[in-house]
Amino acid sequence: MNADRVFPPQFLWGAATSAYQIEGSPLADGAGASIWHEFSHTPGRTRAGDTGDVACDHYRRYRDDVALMRTLGLQGYRFSVAWGRVLPEGRGWVNPAGLSFYQRLVDALLEQGIEPMVTLYHWDLPAALDRLGGWLNPDSAAWFADYAQVLFRALGDRVKLWVTLNEPWVVVDGGYLHGVLAPGQRNPFAAPVAAHHLLRAHATAVQAYRAESNQQIGLVVNLEPKYPATETVEDLAATMRADAYWNRFYLDPVFLGSYPPELPEIFGAAWPSFSAADLALIQQPIDFLGINYYSRQVVSHDPTDWPLAAARVRQPHQTHTGLDWEVYPQGLTDILEWVSGRYGPLPLYVTENGAAFYDPPQSAGEIADPLRLAYLRTHLRAALAAIDKGVDLRGYFAWSLLDNFEWAHGYSQRFGLVHVDYATQQRTPKASARFYSEVIRSHGAALATDFSTERAG
C-alpha cells in the first residue's frame, strides 16, 4: 500500500452495536418484550440457553461505554433502538422511560463529539406485534412508520444519520424461511411476504422522516459477493440465483422498482404478485446506503440445497473466522464497486465489518487478537482501494464495539474490539482496538505499516 494514501478528510470512523445484543435489562422501566426476548427464552433456540437479559449491561453502563468510545478516538457510533422500550405494545402508548434512555445516550455521545447513527430496527420486533402477525401483517408498515415518527420527533434535532432497517435479508432468511432466528418460522410462503412488508416499512419510515427533517436517512443491507466455482452453465446459473437472493432481493426494488427475475424461480408457487403501487412506494429516494460485509461465497450448483440449488464451496486453504466465514478482503472492494456500478454513485457507508475469533483468557493489560487485527487492516485497505476506484464511501463502522450476545450463537463468538468479561462486566480493549485507534488518528496512514509486529503497549 502507498504510504501516502489516506482516507478523505471528512471520512467518519466509528463502531457499531445493536440493542438486544448489548443493552441487557430488556424489560426494565416498562419496556415490552421483543421477539428476541421470547425466542432466546425458548429452550433449544440459542446455544447453552443464552439470552440477552444481561448482555453487556449497556442500559446501565452507557456513560462508561461512551467514555470508552472517546478514549478509542471514535468519531461515530451506530446503535439501534429497541422498539419495545419506546412503545411497549409496538404501537399506541409511548413509554417515557424508554425514550429517555435513548435521549440520554444521544446527548452523552454528542457531549463527547461522537456522531450518532441511529438504526430504527435491528431484528427485535415487539412481541405484541408478532402476535398480530408481525411482518406478515400488511399493517406492519404503518406500525413502523408511527414508531419511527416518535423517534424522529424526539431525537431529530440531534441525530443527523438514520437507518430504517438493518439487514432485512437476515430477518427473512433466518426468521421466516429457515426458522433459526426470531420469530422462528420456517415457511417459504411467508418469506417473500415478510420481505415485501419490510421494504414497505422502510419506505413509509422514509416518508415519515421527510415530513419531519431534512437530514439523512438510509437503509442497511448485508451483501456477500458471489463467485462461481467453475465456468459451467450450471454453476454460473446457481451463482446468479444466489446473487439475486442475497444481494439484489432488497436493493433492486428500492433502486430499480422491481424484484430480481430469479426470485419467482427460487420460490416457485410461494412467490406472490406485488402491486405497482407498492413497488412505487418502495422506491422512496434515500440519502445513503449502508453495507455490512463479512465474507464472500464461492458457489456451485447443488440440487439438494434448498431453496437455491446453489451451495457454498468452502475454500480450504484460506483463513476462516470462528463462524467459518472465509476472510476475503477483496470481496469488500468488489461489492462496493458493484453497488456503485449497478445502482449509481450514491453515498455509501460500511456499516458493519469485523470478525469473530477466539480470544485468549483475559489477563493484565491488553488482549492480543492478531487475526482480528489483520482482518481489520486488510479490509480497511480494501475500503481505501474502493475509494481509489471512484466509490463514494463516506465512513466505516467496525463490528463490533463490544463482545456481545451473538444471537443464536449466544456468547460463544466474540466480535468486539473491546473484550467483555460477562461475569464482571469489565471492559478491556484488545490490540485490534489500539490499532483501529491509530488508524483513525492517522486518517488511515497507519494501514501502511504491519502493526501486528509492534510490541503491545
Task: Set out the fold topology.
Elements (H helix, E strand, L loop, with lengths): L11 E5 L2 H4 L12 H6 L17 H15 L3 E5 L2 H4 L9 H16 L3 E7 L5 H4 L9 H16 L5 E6 L1 H10 L12 H23 L3 E7 L3 E3 L4 H16 L3 H5 L5 H6 L8 H7 L5 E5 L4 E5 L8 E3 L17 H14 L4 E5 L17 H19 L4 E7 L18 E4 L4 E4 L1 H11 L16
Parallel strand pairs: 1-2, 1-11, 2-3, 3-4, 4-5, 5-7, 6-8, 7-10, 10-11
Antiparallel strand pairs: 8-9, 12-13
Helix pairs in contact: 3-5, 7-9, 8-9, 9-13, 14-15, 15-16
Keywords: Carbohydrate metabolism, Cellulose degradation, Glycosidase, Hydrolase, Polysaccharide degradation
Enzyme class: hydrolase
GO biological process, one term: cellulose catabolic process
Descriptive overview:
It is a single chain. Helices cover 39% and strands 14% of the residues. It has 16 helices and 13 strands. With 457 residues, it is α/β, with parallel strands linked by helices. It has a single domain, classed as TIM Barrel, CATH 3.20.20.80. The longest helix is centred in the middle third of the chain and has 23 residues, at 190-212. Helix 15 (370-388) links the parallel strand 10 and strand 11. Mean pLDDT is 96; it is low at 452-457.
